[in-house]
């Protein structure tokens, strides 16, 4: 039996739309949640991309409390460190857009 992968999207700007389009090409992938720091933006993204049933959050840490297999991090570079460390600590697989700052493990708190 095939498992459906449960995915969350953190950051719902330009490149997040490309992630969603790619996930939609795959069988057995469900986008279950979207987080964006701008209030209301995740909700608009969910509606625009037809992600029926997906939940919206303004705080990525709330999204990470869900039962997810992985997250796409689609935030600006400056927030890659925080969101990535939080996601890894929450036990999620991470697909990170672009790079994490060098020496980021040292900065982990
Ligand atoms: N692979 C590519 O071809 C490609 C192209 C463009 C951008 N990028 C990369 O993708 C990333 C995002 O770029 P973009 O063009 O989508 O930017 P964008 O500004 O369009 O979208 C970023 C979104 O993240 C949200 N956000 C910011 N901080 C957040 C946080 N802490 N938690 C949740 N949401 C937060 C913003 O409100 C915004 O909606 C960057 O790292 C960029 O370099 C990659």
From TrEMBL:
The keyword Oxidoreductase applies. Transmembrane segments: none annotated. Residues 5-97 form the Gfo/Idh/MocA-like oxidoreductase N-terminal domain. Keywords: Oxidoreductase. It comes from the Bacteria. Pfam families: GFO_IDH_MocA. It comes from Paenibacillus cisolokensis. This is Gfo/Idh/MocA-like oxidoreductase N-terminal domain-containing protein. The keyword Hydrolase does not apply.
């Amino acid at each position: 039996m095939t498992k459906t992968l449960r995915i969350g999207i953190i950051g719902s700007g330009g490149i997040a739309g490309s992630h969603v389009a790619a996930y939609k090409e795959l069988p057995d992938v469900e986008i279950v949640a979207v987080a964006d720091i701008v209030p209301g933006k995740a909700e608009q993204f969910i509606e625009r991309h037809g992600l029926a049933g997906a939940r919206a959050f303004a705080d990525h840490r709330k999204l990470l409390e869900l039962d997810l297999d992985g997250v796409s991090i689609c935030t600006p570079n400056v927030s890659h460190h925080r969101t990535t460390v939080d996601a890894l600590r929450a036990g999620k697989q991470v697909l990170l857009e672009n790079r994490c700052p060098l020496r980021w493990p040292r900065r982990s708190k």
